[in-house]
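Researcher: We're teaching a course module on how sequence relates to structure. For the next exercise, students receive a sequence and then see the predicted structure as tokens, so they can try to spot secondary structure elements on their own. Here is the exercise chain.
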Amino acid sequence: MKRAAVAVLLAAALHSAAAGVDPEVDLRKAELEAASARAAVLQPAPTSNDAARARSALNSTLQRLGNQRSFVGDDHGAMAAFDELTLSRATGGASADAEDLARLASAREEDAIGAIVREAGKHRVVILNEAHHVPLHRAFAMRLARELRRIGYSWLACETFEETPFRKGYLALSDGYYSREPAFGNFLRDAKADEWQLVQYEPFDLPSGGTMAEQTAQRERGEARNLVARIFSRHPDAKVFIYVGYGHVREKPGVDDGSGPAMMAAQLRQMTGLDPLTIDQTTMMAHTDRAAEHPLYAAALRQPHETPFVLRTPDGGYAVFGSYRSAVDMQVVHPRYGVDADSGRAAWLRTLSGFHAAEAPAAMRNAEAPSYVYAYPQGQPENAVPVDVVRLTPGLPAPKLMLPDGQFRFTIQQ
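Model: And here is the predicted structure for the students to work with:
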């Protein structure tokens, strides 16, 4: 499980505009579709159904835009798109009451990685969620996976996998939709180097039709069944890290509660009899628009932090706020990472990922039009997941690439 410490080698080659381009990404098209959808929402709608359809179309285009921005290294723009989506919804946002304020005041801060690893030693299953448009969540997962591996966890199951990854000898764009994002790719390459057993569990054979509730129930049961079939039934003593999106981490409602859909974590608990350690990291984090933040987030940052933390309660448990209260065991609070002055990039790329700043090749920095520079592991083909992507804009300071130790090749796309 040892990593070879290799000095960063900036070996560059100028490729055609098509080289290294992700076929899922057409950012110009996504931006135009979002602009068109915004305009449609502002137009008077003949009926309430027409207005609802226009709003739904805007939500879909903003989700697509946010994801595509994340795929090309624009984590700020990705968050902005989803914040716009969140704040455009008619329903009210999260709220905090006097009890929440009292719970926050009585809790003490503790390093998130250390606390989770300590608790993970009492379990055989750890389930951590992410927001699919937030790359820093993958950097946190990477850090956590390293520590879980040290205490005997060896199976890593990720919702995003469309097939077992690395079957081609490298992490390919086709291995998963969200894993094409650079931070996710770095997480998975790091896990592969640490000899994790990687497992695909998303069910792709579900029947079509039925209500939304029926489709949700089928998917959650299918995910849990696949995990049982592919890991737990074959390896009864397995210690498993499961990385999911959003609400799949919920242990409540339970399968027989009758109070709502039982999500994957609840289904897995019922099928295996194992009590998973469940962790939310999607609630307490910074947003581009502070109106989209949880109302207790700013208060939770009572001390300056560079790294994530959890809130320990006087009874030895952990404070969880928002919609995940009583549904998960722990909740990570991410600090406001800000921008790293040296690289011009998000500071979490240094503090969480532990990466180094490196200039893009000089020939690429002189591009006359806005361009994207892609960094790939040396020797990997054009359909590999990039290590990093930066946007270069003529007349503006060039942000630096943030890279792990290793050797890399570069391509540029205008």
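Model: If you want an answer key for the exercise: The chain has two domains: 9-42+49-90+339-413, 98-333. The first strand starts at residue 9 and ends at 10.
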